[in-house]
Amino acid sequence: MKRNVPMPITYIVVVLVLPLLVQGMSNPRAFAEVLQIQRGQKTKPALLSEFVQETLANEWNPMEGLSNAMDSAGKAVAGVTSAAEKAIMAPLLGDYMVDSLELQNVTKVALNIQVMALVGFVLLVCGAAAYADSMRKEPRRNNAPSYLTATVLLCSYMLLIPGLFSTLFSFLIGVDMIGINILLSQEDGSEPSQVEKSTITAIELLFKTGGQLGAWLLIIYAIVVPVVKLVLISVAEARRHDQDVEKVKSARKYINFVQLISKWACPDMFAYIFLLYLFRHLDGLSSGPARLHAPAELGVGFACFTLFCVGSTFAAVAVDPPEVPVDEEENRPAPPWTVRLVPLPSLHVVIAVLLGAFAVFYVAGMLLPFMGMRLDSAMLIQPVGPLPASAQTFIDQLHIEDMVHSDVSFARCAYALLQYSMDGELCIIFAMIMVLVFAMLFPVVDMCVLMWASWKMGHQPPDVEAATNALKTARWLKHGCMLDVALMGVVVVTFAGAAYKKQGVILLMMPGLGVLFLAEVVHYVAYYLVHDTVIWRATTKT
Prior knowledge:
63% of the residues lie in helices and 8% in strands. The chain is α+β, with helices and mostly antiparallel strands. The strands form 4 sheets. The protein has a 5-stranded antiparallel β-sheet. A 3-stranded antiparallel β-sheet has the order 7-4-10. A hairpin with a 4-residue loop joins strand 1 (36-38) and strand 2.
């Protein structure tokens, strides 16, 4: 039972004075350094520990027994002091004083086994589908999906279910002060504990805590987008071979739309990657006698959701729209506004300028922090928070707000994930690939490919075939570029921050977010300028 007991003077004496005495008694050789050692002519101060220890060993052998006795006495007093401190603090802190500030999750080995089993199953099934494609003799009718594409899509959606309901992210926040472990985090505003979140439990908690906007954003990106993708692809495939041309045209539109939104199921995946960095960056920070503990881990739900996002995205891009008959007027459409805006001879110059602007925004955005975490200690005290009002003085002495001041940039996050991955945890390796490859590398490569395509179109005559091949590569890269998705993940988790306010945690959007947004605007403009020009030239043969 929790009790609101004021901090007694006895506690101050025991906590602040007695540990100093214990420290001296438990290390008698440090005390010997302030003694004077008599060596014949006069008394000299012992300034070096090595000299003192050598003197004690060689000249004062009888002191060895006393030294050992003092060591034992120091340890005994330290144990009594620790027990006394805990006995005094127990009524004040109640259930918030715990034995350990470590996460009680499945072990890294067990988690890796689960992830390897998932990946092995997907690879096995997809290998069988690829073999079936290789044995297929009849050509695919009207660009129908291959067995491999259909299998990857099916496996992705099978992984979506555990990806929504299994643990994505777990953490705790606690403070260790002179041997007393204080757990500050809570699960659903109840008893102090580590926090484990899946997508579904996060949505439920957001609705309970007033974070409706964050909850709806999670629902849209993690549930609605995947469902819409599946429904539209199913309808499109049902209409692919229809005799009604209008239905075939609608199937083509549905597939193009699915490819456009396919990667937008991933924002919350990046949000948890950034939260992982923020918490681990805080873990181990100290201020005076207090040390902050903020361990965090990604769960098997993260691995499932990552595999779903990557698999469903590329499977959707691999689905070719059906061919539809076109009349003569449709075969020579009017040039789109992007083609009219930038004349063909000037295209490569404009793309070069956009590439330079992208480089400036990209580099600056990668170095600037785009998301931050702060702690409001007032949120920890009743009636808002979990701790009794009598703990306010104690919380102020910990200087927690000074320690919980963490920002994240892409550069720092990528470097940290590289270090984390050295432990061999597969979920961390997945997170590193998502950040380094999909969010950071793909946009740069895509801009370079677009520059190459525009340069080919600038030839006299334009090399439409080479530009078309380059555009195919750029198309795959654009659908795999997830920098824009990662930025939306920051927005989502910031609005979803109401779920963590009970822990006193405040999530902020930082300037780097806006700079990277400008980089992505430049990226989109360059892509559609090149895309529309190449497609129109290839279609009209002009």
